[in-house]
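Risk mitigation, structural track. In case the binding assays with guanosine-5'-monophosphate fail to produce interpretable data, a predicted complex structure has been prepared as a fallback.
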Amino acid sequence: MQLLKERILKDGTVKPGSILKVDSFLNHQMDISLINEIGKEFKNRFSGLPITKILTIEASGIGIACIAAQYFQVPVVFAKKAQSMNLDGEMYTTKVESFTHKKVYNVILSKKFLGSKDHVLLIDDFLANGCALLGLIDIVKKSGASLEGAGIVIEKGFQEGGKIIRNMGIRLESLAIIDSMTDYSLTFRD
Ligand code: 5GP
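Fallback model:
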């Protein structure tokens, strides 16, 4: 997605540990007209699929998923990072290792909001090692819902996540795939 790539080049900054900071338009301050175009692009790429729900994970996926959902006309449900181990039986639970915070979270989703009749599109801001997406995939499996695909805004193609998810046969659409990045240069996959 050309508009997104241009914006990453203009406003993204590279931090130690292969972290791309895009907090002026995606992760902290949010450029809604850009995110609106992102939502439209997800709708184009996943058109014709019987999606009934968009699933994301808190926090930064939520805003993006909500704007995309307006094009799909379906609800958004987000997995919560739970503090407590005391989870009751009405929750799907899984564990996710955070790439940015180097911490393992329990992630929960109420069984009320995802079930075997659902067709799910996963949406998230970044794909790095794939832990967040694998956690969401595990929740979809536990719910018995059908997984239609995953939409990612920025994939860091030099990390393993994309390969792992595609090798599972999951339809993965990333709007910008970064092949390499340093303080001085950033290259995209075509
Ligand atoms: P993964 O679970 O695929 O390793 O990492 C995905 C999650 O980590 C995303 O939900 C995102 O919040 C965060 N993340 C991973 N890499 C980056 C990065 O380079 N920049 C930012 N801002 N977040 C990242």
